Amino acid sequence: MLRIADHASKTDVGRQRHSNEDNFYDRPPLFAVADGMGGAQAGEVASEMAIEEFVQARDTEAPAEKQLEQIAKAANRKIWDMAQSDSRHAGMGTTLTAAMVDGQHVAVGHVGDSRLYLFRNGELERLTRDHSLVEEFVRQGKLTPEQAEKHPQRSVITRALGPEGDVDVDTFRVPAREGDVFLICSDGLSGMVSDEDLAAIIGAGDSLQATADTLVDAANDHGGRDNITAVLFRLEDDGRGDQRTQRPTDSYDTIAGDQEAPSEEQIEAERRRIAEMDTQARVAQTAPTAAATAVRTPPRASSRMRPPDAGTGSPSRPRPAPRRRGRWLPRAIVAGIVIVALAAGAAVVVAHNVYFVGTNDQGLITLYRGLPYDLPFGVKLYTARYVSGVPALSVPPGRRKRVLDHQLRSRGDAADLISSLDTSAPR
Question: What is the pTM of this model?
Answer without folding.
Answer: 0.60
